[in-house]
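User
New here, help please:
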Amino acid sequence: MTEAYDPPLTVAFLLASYTPNAPAGMERATAALAQGLRQLGHHAMVLTAAEQPELDPDVIQLNTLAASFPCDDDTLRRAIHGAGDRLHREITATFDAHGVDIAVYVDALWGLGRVAVQHRARSVLATHVIGHDEDLAVALASVEHVIAPSSTVLDQARERDYDTDGWWVIPNGLLHEHPCPDEAAREALRRRGPIRVLGRLGAEKNIPALVNEARSLERPAEVVVADAGFETVSGAQGDEWSRCKHAAAHSPWVYLRSGGISWAQVPAWLAEAAVVIVPSRRESFGLVALEAMSVGTPVVCFDIDHLPSLIGKGPEAGGVVVPRAGGEHALWKAAEDLLGDPVRYRHLSRAAYYRTRDFQPTTVAELFVKAVR
């Protein structure tokens, strides 16, 4: 049973690159938290600088931030500087017009935390990643609360000499639900289903290296990638796509596709995979892994950042965690070994589903409200 709040809160999320169906964890996690808040009876909106594909009354476009997406950190930083006080006034006026109670800056730079405005609304910085010190230090000095999706982010912050006392861990939530395949369908997937990979075109997602090691694969693998609204340097995503295509040209069992998948379709697509591989070299949370497990699909990943904690170990594990030192070939081998073991596969599939039950939008939203109210 969820807790009722009277009067309801109005929560504004700020994320410069936000668009629905963006292939990025920050956007999807923001949408899930906003959905959970609405399900609890609160109001939630998103303020963004990105042009929206369709009219949504809960998404408000900032007109003073002149930036086109995708763009890199330096380009966005210059746009914020160029907007100056006009951006502050626009954000403040929007908060006033909608009676905002809580403002969530979804990142120090991309979530405009570095320009957090002085307002009666409580201010929250969501540190999905520990970014540049020049943004983070300013943001931390300007907000009242700090949240992070995992203890991994807190560890990374402490390694950079930030004081994390008082920070709250609020995990990312599941935006869409989809039923798990029944036992017979899951067994059929184990025997004949594809291995699937889903990610954005970021170097840390490590997709070209994974595809390059698929040459000895003897089962179809489907790899879907897409551009996000942000990139490390201009053109980086295009370069990553070229590397993916080059690797796939030498891997006959790999079907590579760009353009991504809509948020609503992601769980169904992952449910129809035999195994989902998450080849990331950095992962502060691991939303694709969570979504795969939520539909009973075991995950294979490296032992990096938050992924081992998310996947689990022993009888409660929802997948297989591979030592990073083994390289990308070890990910394919772990997947194929798992698919060849029906008893282990069935156990991991069931455990994967149950590991995700605490990540419902309302559960995460309740944790959020408790942290910042």
Q: What stands out?
A: The mean pLDDT is 95. Residues 343 and 357 are 23 Å apart (CA to CA). Residues 73-98 form the longest helix (26 residues). The first strand starts at residue 10 and ends at 14.
